[in-house]
Amino acid sequence: MAKELAGRVALVAGATRGAGRAMAVELGRAGALVYVTGRTTRERVSEVGRPTETIEETAELVTAAGGTGIAVPTDHLEPEQVKALVERIDRAQGRLDVLVNSLWGGDRLIEFDTRLWDLDLAGGLRMLRLGIDSHLITGHYALPLLIRRPGGLVVEITDGTADFNRRYRDNLCFDLTKNAPHRIAFGLAAELREHGGTAVSLTPGFLRSEEMLDHFGVTEETWRDAVAQEPHFAIAESPALIARGVRALAADGSRPDCFGYFEDVVFGGGDGSAADYR
């Protein structure tokens, strides 16, 4: 496959495992230099409590795929750590082309079907910090580097599409956390437009993450064995699916709206150009 991202620099924030790891590896497969960050290293385990996945391992997978992986331990709730990370990227590379905000780590805090007044308040507020504040802090420090060149891409990763999230998501803190990245991408799209940048929100489906595979006692190669105990798992998807989507966005940066173009311009007589519908 062509190395269409050769010379590009990416930061995948939250690349320890799951979709974040897969996206980092796929960007590396396309030739990018990828900074991978997270809180679990070979010396330290984060509150998620999964020592088997580390950012060093992710960086090695990026390099093995054909890119260059650089692991930088970072707590994205600590502004000074994020500031230092971006300054390091600037000193070494002088550019940032792709920012993927895949920060989360709040699954253990979910309380299903729990009203706000019955919710563990500390856990709910921690969830908001992990899933919202971390994204805003990272964007605050990383975007000035990204907008130096036109064509920058920001990818906000969340859970549930905008349509799906019109239903209430289990408890108020979880609902807010999973809807916020859609709105962050919406706002950043407006702010980046004058700089030639793009912001999108993406969501995986029923993700076959390392944790989910462990839960069912299967591997990526044997995941279908879990369908017998959980029929819904038949709809599960590999983290590679969303990773390939991010690679395509980073390489092309657009999604042509051909039917909108035909409706407005070809059939509707509008004066827009094809470029306006990419």
Could you characterize the architecture of this molecule?
With 278 residues, the chain is α/β, with parallel strands linked by helices. The chain has a single domain (9-203, 238-277), classed as NAD(P)-binding Rossmann-like Domain (Rossmann fold). 41% of the residues lie in helices and 11% in strands. It contains 8 helices and 6 strands, in the order E-H-E-H-E-H-E-H-E-H-E-H-H-H. The chain has helices at residues 18-29, 55-65, 79-93, 121-146, 172-192, 210-216, 239-252, 258-266; strands at 9-13, 33-38, 68-73, 98-101, 153-157, 198-202. Strands 3-2-1-4-5-6 form a 6-stranded parallel β-sheet, sandwiched between helices. Strand 2 (33-38), helix 2 (55-65) and strand 3 (68-73) form a beta-alpha-beta unit. Helix 1 crosses helix 7 (239-252). The relative contact order is 0.13.
